[in-house]
Amino acid sequence: MKTVSTLLLFGATGDLSHRMLLPSLYGLHVDGLLPADFRIVATARSKFDDAAFRASAVDALKDHVPADFFDDAKAGEFVSRLSYVPLDATQRDGFDRLAEKIDPAGGLAIFLSTAPSLFKPTIDGLASAGLTGEDVRLALEKPLGTDLASSREINDAVAAAFPEERTFRIDHYLGKETVQNLLALRFANSTFEPLWNSAHIDHVQITVAETVGLEGRAGYYDSAGALRDMVQNHMLQLVALVAMEPPANFDATSVRDEKVKVLRSLRAIGSDDIATHVVTGQYGNGAVGDQPVGSYTSELGKPSSTETFVALKAHVDNWRWSGVPFYLRTGKRMAARKTEIFIQFKCVPHSIFASRGARTQANKLVISIQPEENIRLLVMAKTPGLDRQGLRLREIALDVAMADAFADARRRIAYERLLLDLVEGDPTLFVRRDEVEAQWQWIDDVRAACREAGLEPRNYGAGSWGPSAAIALTERDGVHWHD
Ligand SMILES: NC(=O)C1=CN([C@@H]2O[C@H](COP(=O)(O)OP(=O)(O)OC[C@H]3O[C@@H](n4cnc5c(N)ncnc54)[C@H](OP(=O)(O)O)[C@@H]3O)[C@@H](O)[C@H]2O)C=CC1
Ligand SMILES: O=C1O[C@H](COP(=O)(O)O)[C@@H](O)[C@H](O)[C@H]1O
Q: Measured between alpha carbons, how far is 480 from 483 in angstroms, rounded to an integer?
């Protein structure tokens, strides 16, 4: 696919645009990665002219770009690429005016950073203004539906104007450097892959813990909950990357073909499994660090049974992963911000050191995605000495901090990579329709089973690691969460 010369940004005045998209585009501009003639046409309902929107974009950059990366002159150059067209996406008449701002010959990437309820009217408006031709590609932000049925409706509306190869579904976790590094770790090294299976791996843990609460998104979050907000998309993508077979190439079809096989192999959780496989929670009063924090319902301002935490035991039912539990947990207002993949290997089959009184522990691989980005392999080593009182072994860490290993590389916002791939037409790090639908299928089954079993969120103190039942979920298998 060719590089396009225009980005059309819907929802340009919104939070995501201000915090992530404009700063990412600025980063690409500063690094010289945008074509010289590249233009960004921004749109939303608010009444700005070009100059006023550019001024608001500079303000957003000042607020959200790290101070040592913000530069007045560069920001001025960057915003000269921007123009603004006020438009209500639910009204067809504004789209022709929008089309006049766009050079069709250079190709167009459209980014919908708006509520999903606007996707269909927006696509209809784009089609009526001739903005869906073969040089046009469309990127969509999550949430892509609230269940499989609504996700299919969105996908059908998109497919009516944009074929799959021109549809770019965002999961911003795929834009994170350390998430991509998981693929490098697995498939650019010969060390791990022979061990990456049920013969050598005891279990996998994936944790996405956040310290933040609702952050001004109460309406959306209360209707979604942790299972749909985080597990349906980001966490299942992490599961797919950990569990997939080696793709033949690092290209969109090969990678996504392998991911979808994993997603389709997830074992459905039924209502009889709920007690042993799912724990949900909602935070009560507590403290994150030394900051007192009110309960979810006090933040929300009304009673709610929405889960702000979920822990699950999942299985990938295929040859490679038979019998290996994948423990997943995510929550708001937890003790620390931590996104981590933890691989627990099996113990050595026989310890030659046991007769000398030494205990061995199984190896562990800890892939920290954020806020620290590092890879740590925990292995056994002999404690130095003459062993007069018996031989002692100790767990030591082979530790690589990405920030040290790649000290000269700027840490980028995930959206920088995704926006550049959109502009250049590389869909490898975007989610294909069959993946999204397989993810929804599994989540719909979990939700139906939770309803049938009458599962209610348990209370956990803000600033903790979730309800104690989440600890029991793994402990009954003899497994401890890696905190
Ligand atoms: N913020 C975040 O961190 C994340 C957001 N998302 C998703 O991305 C999408 C955007 O999120 P966010 O920026 O936070 O939302 P906001 O509510 O902050 O922004 C919504 C944007 O849509 C515009 N808009 C609303 N109604 C219309 C309309 N009828 N026609 C044209 N434009 C309209 C608004 O501008 P105006 O009022 O001027 O029209 C604004 O620019 C949402 O679906 C959200 O769930 C996903 C992941 C993270
Ligand atoms: O998509 C979402 O992700 C964020 C967490 O993203 P991260 O990059 O900070 O890990 C989450 O806070 C939000 O609720 C969810 O919608």
A: 9
Active site residue 234: yes
362 lines ligand 1 (CB under 6 A): no
Look at residue 392 and tell me if it is in a domain: yes
How far apart CA 477 and CA 327 sit, in angstroms, is 11
**How many angstroms is it from 74 CA to the middle of ligand 2?**
29
Helix (H) or strand (E) holding 100: helix 94-100
Q: Is the CB of 90 under 6 A from ligand 1?
A: yes
What residue numbers bound the domain in which 66 lies?
Answer: 6-141
The pTM for the full model equals 0.97
Question: What are the per-10-residue average pLDDT scores of the chain (483 residues)?
Answer: 95 97 98 96 97 98 96 98 97 94 91 95 96 96 94 96 97 96 96 97 98 93 97 98 98 98 98 97 95 95 97 98 98 97 97 93 96 94 90 94 85 95 98 98 98 97 97 97 92
Domain count along the chain: 2
Last residue of a domain, one of 141, 165, 191: 141
C-alpha–C-alpha distance, residues 176 and 237, integer Å? 12
User: Looking at ligand 1, which residue's alpha carbon is closest to its atom 19?
Assistant: 14
Distance 126 CA to ligand 1 centre (A): 18
149, part of any domain: no
